[in-house]
């Protein structure tokens, strides 16, 4: 698997640094394109705060074996705090604050 630009990396175990750059080496996901197309064609406008690429590049953000249970396998679907979820919250807060300012 060449997901994180490392041919030997099959899980997030031992990963401690985010990727450099702004392109996810695993390629784009078809589901993301589908969601964007659906939102673009909706009759009622919807805003999407797209954190997909930001999140994919944070290989160090997964809880992996460092959570409860210790060495019982890797958990690459949940995120460590503080980290990626905090970044999502900061971005959302910025969008909300900027949105309120434009309505004043």
Question: Keywords for this structure?
Answer:
flat; 104 residues; mainly alpha; 34% helix; single chain
Account of the 3D structure:
This is Trichome birefringence-like C-terminal domain-containing protein. By secondary structure, this protein is mainly alpha-helical. The chain has one domain. It is 34% helix and 0% strand. The protein is flat and about 45 Å long.
Describe how the helices and strands are arranged:
Blueprint: H1 30-40, H2 52-56, H3 84-102
InterPro entries: TBL, TBL_C
Region (Disordered): 1-25
Biased composition (Polar residues): 7-20
- Mean pLDDT, nearest integer? 72
What's the number of domains? Answer: 1
Query: Helical element count?
Result: 3
Question: How much helical structure, as a percent, in the residues?
Answer: 25-40%
State the order of secondary-structure elements, H for helix, E for strand.
HHH
Instruction: Name the overall outline.
Output: flat
Derived from helix and strand composition plus strand pairing, the structural class reads: mainly alpha
Tell me about the biggest sheet?
none
Q: Could you give the distance between the termini?
A: 50 Å
Using only C-alpha atoms, the radius of gyration works out to 17 Å
Number of strands: 0
